[in-house]
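Field: COMPLEX_INPUT
Field: COMPONENT_COUNT = two
Field: RESIDUE_TOTAL = 487
Field: MODE = joint
Values follow.
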Amino acid sequence: MTARTSQEAATIVRIRIPSPLRSYTGGSEVTVAVPVLAPELPPTLGGVLAALNLNYPGIRFRIIDEQGKVRPHVKLFVGTDATRDLSSPIPSGATLMIVAALSGG
Amino acid sequence: MARLPAAARPALARRTRLLIATRKGLWTLTGDVSRNGWKLAGPQFLGHIVHHATADPRDSRTLLAAARTGHLGPTIFRSSDSGRTWKEATRPPAFSEESGRVVDHTFWLTPGHPSEPGVWFAGTSPQGLFRSADGGATWQGVNGFNLNPQRKAWCGGDQDGTPDGPKLHSILIDPRDAAHMYIGMSGGGVFETPDAGAHWWPLNKGVRADFLPDPAPEYGHDPHCVRLAGGHPDRLYQQNHCGIYRLDRPGDVWQEIGNTMPKTVGSVGFPLAVHPRDPNTLWVVPMDGTSVWPRTAPGGRPAVYRSRDGGRSWKRQDQGFPKSQAWWTVKRQAMTADNRDPTGIYFGTTSGEVWGSRDEGRSFRCLARNLPQIYAVEAATN
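Field: COMPLEX_OUTPUT
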């Protein structure tokens, strides 16, 4: 879905939040508005996470390291597709699922 | 021996509160005035790996805790009300994008000099040095170290070093001069700066490094824990992978003092604690460093060893400990002394027990058990 804010068009992205990150969001699901710069340029995964961090400061660094890499025990799904590429496009209406995957005691 | 003037020494504490950082969260043990009764509280940050938690002696209210979870990146939590409430740092320690390096976790926290309220230092794994000027809310890299062209030669690669990651620890600030600091690195050795971190040089002469082709290199050593002697900042003690050492400045050659330990016990260990007022008194916890390095109490018979003469001789202190089948490991941050008289000595084991002595090690008793693996024990004074 695409919404128009007071300044610019934005895509609303639904994000499913794993329990280790709910201290930031307060819930298991949030939505963020990601600016759409041009119709032919859909928002990227990196843009969605930046928007998420604007709403919940500090959350991005727990998921993405300072070199822009997804941390080893975090998995990201856009729809049903796993990705670790922050330039991945986020189609309109897609859901981003963040998974904290860890084995061991 | 020149000691700090009385006015520069911290006042005696009235109570002891221990901050117990574990692999699964943070607990506190608060003693009564006599240090006979102890109350365990926690956990806070349950499920977080808390590598270190330290109180700020400059205000007796501020606490910082270095934490991460198994899944998530590292962060710093701050409390300005003695641990009742916590806020997360808005900019935790992180390397510059240009460096290509990634902080795995913050390993060590040190409050800054008394003349610089709000200043803190953090050491990370892999080796990095960070400074906060706002009480731990935001952190900046100390570029004189992190971007030093010699850093990789000093430390090796980010994948080198100790089993749970190479680390920068033992950030020591000269109480007479805020700009004069020491750091310890595993691996790397001990380094000194005269100018708040702009320039550094190695300080490892006399320290063995028998795991390297050159047994006496300029750097690349493995200090496990380095401390300034209580009341005498021109003296340093070091528990190293290769023994126990003392350095008296302005000298720059460490004297090995672990070679007077009993041969059957050895001089391998991780933590080292110093008496807060007597620069000749220190404690170590020997670990088995033979064959494949079990790193447990030698023979399953744990003991603390105390020296009252700067390491010339040692006394075994084990009253209260199990006499057999106690295979403890005590990590490098998991032993501390309080600022009481007589001084209390405390340590935590990887098997989740906290032990304490209120008579400078003459006798110990177990203050808590069944905690998760203990990474660090620090005494907060108030």
